[in-house]
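In the present case, backbone shapes were mapped to integers, as reproduced here:
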Amino acid sequence: MPLVQVRLPARQRKYEIKIDGGLLSELGPEARAVLGSSSQRAALISNQIVFEHYGQRAAQSLKAANFKTTLWLMPEGERHKSLRSLAQALKFLTESGLERGDVVVALGGGVVGDLAGFAAATYLRGIPFVQVPTTLLAQIDASVGGKTGVNLPAGKNLVGAFHQPRLVIIDTQTLATLPAREQTSGWCEAVKQGAVGSRKLFQQTRSLLNRGGADFSLWLSREESQTEVSATIAAHCHFKAAIVAGDEREEIGRVDHRSRRILNFGHTTAHALERLTGYRRFRHGEAVGYGTLVAGEISKNIGMLASDELESLREAVRLCGPLPGAEDLSIGEIVTAMKGDKKSLGGTTMWVLLERIGRARLVDGKQIDKRLLRSSLRAGLRSIS
């Protein structure tokens, strides 16, 4: 079973990410081992779709480990990652009678994990929580590193907290029931992460897509493929864990290639696309797929990234699956939406760009000509199917 340790600089904290098929049945004992005997209640937060597949197994495992388990199902979708949903989650935690030593368990994708984690961070000024991500995007990204939060009408993830989980349980069998678009979304995030992580991680991800395609139901039907999928997820978690260990809270003044801010590659455009379409047209990873291509185009157009490297990036995103159309969106409105990005510094957008596959650089938006930005957006938002 692959095991990744996330080591945090403050007070020498650490937690484990455990990865294996069928691991969901061990949720209760694993949580009990981390939390100890004083933890009495587990508040399970999920959504209806995920709970129908995996909720009973998670709840039964928690109850078997002597947790008094309560359940709240939040609405599905990015647009429900809001202050209103947060208030509902906090009301649920209050009614469940949770105390400081109890635990919140997030069972679902990135939206569930972000909201449940933020509720855990704010309730009683912070209580433990456990991440059980059920999508590829959440398994390699959202569940690792402690970023939690909700969206505001003005922009995405503008309210949140850094609140590290006590444990992450990744059951790769949950990927078998992912809808096609959720698979594409996760693979786009994996390509993005490989692009800024290392050429080896990028090639490992692209190789998996080349050989097996984006359909997890086919991959997970073969034992040898399950092993390869687990190894790839573990490699992504190792990369992100290393970044988090060196820069847990995304230090504002840090601009080197191992700043946590490099993980925002593709997100400046992605967040603008999501906000502009009311969080209804794009899954997060689909928007990141486009954002990755736009950032790649800018990198090439300012002379940083070679054309063949950009083509490799485009091919990897194409392998992830079809993306919703974006060419009808106004370039001017996208540029305006970017101005509310939380990664801005001194009123200027900070872009994460590529020197080459596996090497990112932070670039002040003032260095990017407006016409170059608009042409890069047009090129990056073209259909790649």
In short: The mean pLDDT is 92. The longest strand covers residues 13-20. The domain at 3-177 is CATH 3.40.50.1970 (Rossmann fold).
